[in-house]
Amino acid sequence: MNARDIMSKPVVSVHPDTQLREIARLLIDKRISAVPVVGDDGAAVGIVSESDLIRPERAEREAWRQSWLEILAEGEPLAPELLGWLQSQGHTARTVMSAPVITVGEDTGLGEIAHLLVKHRIRRVPVVCEGRITGIVARDDLLRALASSKPEL
Questions:
Q1: Is pTM, for the whole model, over 0.90?
Q2: Residue pLDDT, tens place only, 41-86
Q3: I need a surface site. Which of 3, 60, 109, 126 has the fewest CB within 10 A?
Q4: What does DSSP assign to residue 89?
């Protein structure tokens, strides 16, 4: 068996500029726990999960880290733009997504997919063909395959 055999499709995706509130509504409405972020060219550039939405401080930590590096390196005061960004409610997928996104091909074996999920501590992996997402394999897809497989598999 490979990714093509068990992947969920079609895949719901968002653009990097999609507002986080819109992503939250999408996850709830579609009853999914994550959504790939796809650039203008159709390629996966990241993924936003429920965790990313309920822990947006990661983006803030990254911004603070960058600002402190700039302050220490250049002796500049904290930029008002940075303060405004940290206080705003208009964050987008780009600000919280996990990137780069780990993907697999349609012919990737289930053992390799399981290995990637464990190694990278992720719960799902988009399946790509010719640079475009064609499906997604999550942990529960692997469990369903395991539960339905014949003993010799």
A1: no
A2: 889 999 999 888 776 555 555 555 555 555 555 555 545 665 454 4
A3: 109
A4: S
Cα–Cα distances (Å) from 136 to 39, 59, 68, 140, 142, in that order, read 17, 25, 38, 11, 11
* Cis previous bond, 77, omega within 30: no
Distance CA 16, CA 47 (A): 10
CA dist 19 and 15 (Å) reads 9
- Write out the H or E segment, with its range, that includes residue 127: strand 124-129
Fold for 3-56+91-148, please state it: CBS-domain (3.10.580)
- Of 71, 153, 136, 147, nearest to 101 by C-alpha is 136
